[in-house]
Amino acid sequence: WWRAGLACGLAACLAFAGWRTITDRTATTDRGFTLTAPQQAPPGAGDPVADPEVVLAHPAPEGLEDSPTPEGATPAALADSPWWSTPAYQEAEDHAMDLLAGWRFENPYRMLDLRSPHINVVDGLRRTWTPPPCDCRRLTVWIYGGSTAWGISQRDDHTIASELARVAAENGVTLDVQNRGLPGFHHWLEAERFAWDLTTNPRPDLVVFYDGVNDRFWQPDLADPIFANLWDRSGRSEGDAPDGPPGASVAGPPQPRSSGLMQTEEGVRRYDAAREMSRATAAAAGVPVRYVWQPERYSRQFVATEPHFDTGHENDARRGSQFAWEQLADDVIDLHDALGANTDPIYTDDVHHNELGSRLIAEALFDRLEPDLRRLAT
């Protein structure tokens, strides 16, 4: 299960909402303020860098060797989560992540519905913890992202989306958070889905895009073989492809992949370009948006009990992670340090984490969103 989620784009956000009748949004009262920053040039616009020196904030110790979680073993981050190794959870997550079952990557607007004790998908969205009924002002928040937002290795009530709703409730703010994250998503896919969702659902009070790892790593010549393999597994590639029309030709070979920090810079630039799409959609609909850069294993201090690589590989990856957050535009909420000085095993691989990680990230996210949420609630 984890290989499928990791292979199709390492990260990744969060749940509950059905298809509703298209409604007229022009009658919605103007809130009088916007949460997006003025349009600006992406950082690093111009010529690519030539892998500048990066002084690591959290270098890995010397002498490390590759140390993945052994096949069939429970990751240290999930040692205190007995539900994770039960058939009820494993079978449900395997089903949700299987291209032949719940996951429809070639139709990225939804995941097939699923009912189980720990993972439930309703109308294509992961179920999220919801505050009890009240006479208070309730805010609807949509959260988009990849597999980290969707909630791999977490139960429904403990994804980042659920924990955000719970943290907000503890602080007197009532949020109905809808988890619109899907495994493998990058911001350009989220931007397309966001535009579609606005045509079929009542407008939310706030939209949060939770991104980072997928956008940082994705390149066409890296992703295409992965997608081709998934397509082959679906059984839809059997038989010979039809000939093209007269004069048609196959495109030339892909351009050589960039590497090192140049790859990271290109990823951040592509992320900023995709954000122009979602920003324009949000402005047209009058919906406030917030952009969030996620933490990852490489963005905090080294924890020996988490799966890791040798020292050289570790530090190369940490250098790329740090270079990415240093390139972010001013309107991006940078949560790379959301786990702070915590040294508990949290990550099950380079990006997916346990439920403690969801709670810590939700606390940091609410701290950054609280002023806007309280304004929206007035």
Explain this structure:
34% of the residues lie in helices and 8% in strands. It has 378 residues and is α/β, with parallel strands linked by helices. The strands form two sheets. Strands 4-3-5-6-7 form a five-stranded parallel β-sheet. Helix 5 (187-200) packs parallel to helix 8 (260-285).
In short:
By secondary structure, the chain is α/β, with parallel strands linked by helices. The chain is built from ten helices and seven strands. It has helices spanning 2-7, 87-97, 147-150, 160-170, 187-200, 213-217, 220-233, 260-285, 311-326, 355-377, and strands at 121-122, 125-126, 138-145, 174-179, 206-211, 289-293, 332-334.
Largest sheet: 5 strands, parallel
Number of helices: 10
Which overall shape is indicated by the principal axes computed on the Cα atoms?
A: globular
Per DSSP, what share of the residues sits in E-state strands of 2 or more residues? 5-15%
In spatial order, strands of the major sheet run 4-3-5-6-7
Order of helices and strands: HHEEEHHEHEHHHEHEH
Task: State mean pLDDT (0 to 100 scale).
Answer: 81
How do the strands and helices of this protein lay out in sequence?
Layout: H1 2-7, H2 87-97, E1 121-122, E2 125-126, E3 138-145, H3 147-150, H4 160-170, E4 174-179, H5 187-200, E5 206-211, H6 213-217, H7 220-233, H8 260-285, E6 289-293, H9 311-326, E7 332-334, H10 355-377
Parallel strand pairs: 3-4, 3-5, 5-6, 6-7
Antiparallel strand pairs: 1-2
Helix pairs in contact: 4-10, 5-8, 8-9
